[in-house]
Amino acid sequence: MLDREAAWRSALYGPDGFFTRGERPSDHFRTAPLIGPELASALLELLARVDRALGSPPVVDFVDVGAGGGELAAAVRALATGSLGSRLQVTAVDVGPRVELPGVRWTSSVPSCIGLLVAHEWLDAIPCPVVRGPSDDPWLASWWPLEAGGWAEVGAPRDEAWTSAVAAVTGAALAIDYGHTIECRRPTLTGYRDGRQVEPVFDGSCDITAHVAFDSAAAAAGGDHVLISQRDALPALGLAGDVPPLSDPMAWLSATARAGRIAELRAVGGLGDFGWLLHATGPVRVADLLPPLPAWRPNPASFPGPR
């Protein structure tokens, strides 16, 4: 029987794996950092709130885990100004070949962080066991009870990775991803190649992902945390998408384009369905960072078809 976790890991991270040979997720599906600077702007505002709660340390970190081509890290570095910008250290974490970016340092493992760590579509690319039928796996018993013939993606490796990442942070850690909870589990293993969703094959020719069990990851890392939607988080961080009166045509055009990009980031059935799992650590509290917002609920419309 195929060990799907081992095959998945080899397909992505082996010697000839999808990521280790230099493929970028942005070449195969549309990611939020490529839409424009708005996501980076929102995360920079979140970092500013973390910085204030930490008392403005001499050096403050922005760590981009699963950075791919470093698009998000580069945008945050470019947008940061003033006191925060002068103290900001930006680190991109990835296992593949690196792109030299001004003001961005690279590493292959999650570093300690005083500031904000962001895992944007990282957890869904961590291989995990894919099993069928009843099992004595303790994770399944707690988080994905199986019926005969049913498939499940065991989230324990993601829980472990996220717990380790959160433990490295003084400030805040944020996972942004598609996901599900125990009330709405469904197998989601799928592949992406050249902008299209494809059957997941384990030969290194495509990106392979599966949705994140957010409730399990949240419980594993523990502490002060909140799980909200990207749709609700962005306005709370200043991305309202307002359009000024037409009396200023150039400002109107610019604001209209920006509003369109924000609308794409907040779209129901699209990127707005991303879950934001935010953990506050050290002296920082979630209440320092965000107002009360509705709890995230998975949208089955964003799930890929059965595989």
TrEMBL record:
Molecular function GO labels: protein-arginine omega-N symmetric methyltransferase activity
Top-level taxon in the UniProt lineage: Bacteria
Pfam families reported for this sequence: Methyltransf_28
GO biological process: methylation
Keyword Transferase: yes
Classification via SUPFAM superfamilies: S-adenosyl-L-methionine-dependent methyltransferases
Protein name: SAM-dependent methyltransferase, MidA family
Residues spanning the signal sequence: none
Keywords: Methyltransferase, Transferase
